[in-house]
Amino acid sequence: MEVGVYWGCMILTSQYAYEVSLRTVLPELGVSIVDIAEVSCCGTPIKNVNQKAAIYLALRNLALAEKTGVEDLLVPCNGCYLSFSEAIHHWTKDDNLRTEINNLLMEEGLKFNGNIKLWHTIDFLHDKIGIEKIKTAVKKLLNDLKFVSHPGCHILRPSTIVNVDNPEKPEKLDNLLRVLGAECVDYPEKLDCCGAGLLLSHSETALTIAGLKLKAIKNLAVDGLVVSCPSCKIMFGAKQEAIGTIVGEKFEIPVLYYTQLLGLALGLEEKNLGLELNQSPIEKILEKIS
Q1: The CATH number of the domain where 32 resides is what?
Q2: Which of 68, 90, 119 is the C-terminal boundary of a domain?
Q3: With a threshold of 0.90, does the pTM exceed it?
Q4: Within this chain, do residues 221 and 277 fall inside the same structural domain, yes or no?
Q5: In Å, how far are 19, 125, 187 from 176, measured between CA atoms?
Q6: What pLDDT is stored for residue 224 in this prediction?
Q7: What's the total number of domains in the chain?
Q8: Do residues 8 and 77 touch, judged by C-beta distance below 8 A?
Q9: Rounded to an integer, what distance in angstroms lies between the CA atom of residue 281 and that of residue 48?
Q10: With a cut of 50, which residues of the chain have pLDDT below it?
Q11: Where are the alpha helices (DSSP H) in 165-229?
């Protein structure tokens, strides 16, 4: 199986562990990665300033992906996934916009046909590769571990545009954890935002939003929190100390990408999964697994 990958900005500049773990686990599941050359930002940061420019940036990246000949494009970042999905939605619905964008793309010798299929990490693993294939590949069951999952907002809402999972009751990430042998605990705050969207404009509010969720998770006494979005990983992992200061709580909650746990369950070496790059205390989880 061959899949193109659009990494976006954040994964390649600060969340290397996500890239490292994906590049390590996908070949183990029979997937060959095709990197897309000459890509740019997905357009999200300028959406509120110039929506048309944001749509153009997104569709330009998709045109570059189509140019490689791949039929499937993996977009691991939730924000980039929504940006691309929104751009395709507007391109499909607005004839004038479609003509204008196509003319701009032609200046670079590009064309977007709308034929490429978008995948996020969660539905790519759950639906494209499949639970059964992952189950047969697992070599080390994570039977003694209990997690909560955080799928993130931008792959669930607005549900008229994105459809990675059920927007009211997402279960695919939980299913992916259970196939590794881990227990997955449901909790009322599962759909609550990480707060990253407010971090630059209202930082204390963003940290408070994340803190309320971390407090709820702390009370569940689980082994860790599992994510699949770089922004969510930064909020819940790297900013735990700052969040604790804001909400008056001390947090020591391990936060991992699902792909890192998948790699451990596949029997892959820790050094090849970016675990040393985690910015939360994961030592107890590694001890339990070993």
Answers
A1: 1.20.1050.140
A2: 119
A3: yes
A4: yes
A5: 19, 8, 17
A6: 98
A7: 2
A8: yes
A9: 36
A10: none
A11: 172-178, 203-218
